[in-house]
Amino acid sequence: MSDSEPIIFRPKAGTAPSPAQHGAGQRRDTSTTVFDRRELSDILALYGRKVAAGEWRDYAMDFGRETAVFSVYRRTSEWPIYRIEKNPRNARKQGAYSVISATGHILKRGHELKRVLEVLEKKSLYLVES
Prior knowledge:
single chain, globular, five-stranded antiparallel beta sheet, 21% strand, alpha+beta
């Protein structure tokens, strides 16, 4: 082989990426749990109201095999103050949706996301002196 000949690299048989691996014409992997558009719209509407009120500042989303999690932060460097989880395996039992506090307590669980998110909508009670 001389210096002027091009070097051609060919992958071994069966190692070339298929169009499915690049997402061409393929649907998403169904083994991952995700929030659908309606669910995400409900969550982000609540998030926007809380950001406007100055209560929340950041969020993160995690999608796994069994759960989809929307975590809410007061500050970026802290632990999440709330986690909104979707777990389809619990759909027939307690409900697929739950809101979990920073301490790990389940604040509310249910079958309808809007009803579960109501626990985060409630106003704080203040002591008023007369």
